[in-house]
Amino acid sequence: MITGAFLLLAISLGYLLTVGLSMAATFAITTSLPDLVARDYRITPRYKFLQDGVWLVCTAIGGYAAALVLGTDHSPWIGGMALMVVLMGVLWTNTWEMRQRGVGHQMLMSLATVAGVTAGFFLRLR
User: Mean pLDDT in the chain?
Assistant: First the structure.
């Protein structure tokens, strides 16, 4: 029961941090560098790659925070896998953003999710 509560707290914190930081970075980038973001009402490829990198960093921070909550006593690797599943589930079910990014960047962001959450957990649990 307690492990389940820690798991839910860790996934919620990791998700909120990842998505919140990603949104903040997106707003900051689009406000300060509008020409990098879009040209002729189309999102530029450079911005898409920048977003992939931002997502990698945000998922690492979210994974680290989730690992902080779980520690080594409350199934940390199950928590990491659960956070990955939740983040990728939301990523793939958001069809509007998926159309904006394209399938290639969607797959790249999925790989960034796995790499980022894993890196965050490894940094915390080493």
Answer: 91
